């Protein structure tokens, strides 16, 4: 197999991963709190010696989570929360790990814990679950996350940012984990009665999907022509 086919194979593999990522972004264009993801390609260049052309191979192994603010929509829901600016809500994952999310459609469960639609408990600034007494009526959440009911202070919803935004690993559509440190947010505020939509630009994603598809087809055509050339050479040598 020629170096050209090896090079094209690595490119095709990366394009397939990018196509999957773009398709996932488009599928979540209407998902509350979804953060779009992009693929990062890296190039590896090998010097083949004096008088020889260098060999360049590209792989798409990295990813980046886009932090652009999604559109805010007013719901007037008591426990519907959106973040304006930087930051993530903290929720307790199934294994007790801290997960980060921008999807703020919360509600109290039967035990009084503030939870996500999946049943994961929302955490306060100190990392403890937030309890909503069953007899409260007038619930107010201020811009700094302070939650009060009937004039009583109950908790403060914690907003955090990972020390390295590129350390985020997606656990599902709208939640992330990180191995790095978490820091308090200074320039983010909580909006009660609002939800943040997906930050996917559907038009740009569809345009990118078409570009990736064309690039993949060009690579596929090159490999087919290169395969025919090598078959012809093999047949000539065999004769």
Helicity, in percent?
25-40%
Biggest β-sheet: strands ordered side by side in the sheet? 13-14-6-5-12-15
> How much beta, percentage-wise?
25-35%
Alpha-beta classification: alpha+beta
Detail the poorly predicted runs.
Answer: none
| H/E element order | HEEEEEEEEEEEEEEEEEH
Distance between the termini: 20 Å
Total DSSP helices: 2
Description:
The protein is of the alpha+beta class and 239 residues long. It is 26% helix and 31% strand. It is built from 2 helices and 17 strands. The protein has helices at 3-27, 202-238, and strands at residues 37-46, 55-65, 72-74, 81-85, 88-92, 98-101, 107-108, 114-115, 139-141, 146-149, 152-156, 159-162, 169-170, 175-177, 182-184, 188-192, 194-196. Helix 1 (3-27) runs antiparallel to helix 2 (202-238). The chain starts with a helix and ends with a helix.
Keywords, separated by commas or semicolons:
6-stranded antiparallel β-sheet; 17 strands; 3-stranded antiparallel β-sheet; 239 residues; single chain; alpha+beta; 2 helices; elongated
Task: Give the arrangement of secondary structure elements.
Layout: H1 3-27, E1 37-46, E2 55-65, E3 72-74, E4 81-85, E5 88-92, E6 98-101, E7 107-108, E8 114-115, E9 139-141, E10 146-149, E11 152-156, E12 159-162, E13 169-170, E14 175-177, E15 182-184, E16 188-192, E17 194-196, H2 202-238
Antiparallel strand pairs: 1-2, 3-17, 4-16, 5-6, 5-12, 6-14, 7-8, 9-10, 10-11, 12-15, 13-14
Helix pairs in contact: 1-2
């Amino acid at each position: 197999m020629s170096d050209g086919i090896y090079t094209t194979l690595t490119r095709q593999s990366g394009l397939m991963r990018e196509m999957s990522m773009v398709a996932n972004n488009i599928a979540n264009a209407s998902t509350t709190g979804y953060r779009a993801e992009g693929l990062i390609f890296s190039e590896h260049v090998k010097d083949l010696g004096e008088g020889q052309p260098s060999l360049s191979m590209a792989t798409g192994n990295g990813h980046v989570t886009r932090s652009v603010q999604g559109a805010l929509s007013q719901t007037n829901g008591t426990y519907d929360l959106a973040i304006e600016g930087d930051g993530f809500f903290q929720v307790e994952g199934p294994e007790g790990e801290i997960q980060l999310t921008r999807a703020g459609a919360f509600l109290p469960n039967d035990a009084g814990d503030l939870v996500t639609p999946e049943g994961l408990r929302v955490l306060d600034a100190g990392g403890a679950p937030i309890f909503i007494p069953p007899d409260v009526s007038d619930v107010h959440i201020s811009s700094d996350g302070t939650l009060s009911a009937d004039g009583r202070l109950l908790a403060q919803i914690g907003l955090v940012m990972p020390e390295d935004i590129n350390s985020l690993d997606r656990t599902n559509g709208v939640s992330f984990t990180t191995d790095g440190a978490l820091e308090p947010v200074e320039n983010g505020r909580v909006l009660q009665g609002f939800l943040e939509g997906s930050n996917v630009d559907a038009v740009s994603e569809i345009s990118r999907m078409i570009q990736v598809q064309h690039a993949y087809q060009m690579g596929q055509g090159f490999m087919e022509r290169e395969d025919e050339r090598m078959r012809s050479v093999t047949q000539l040598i065999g004769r």
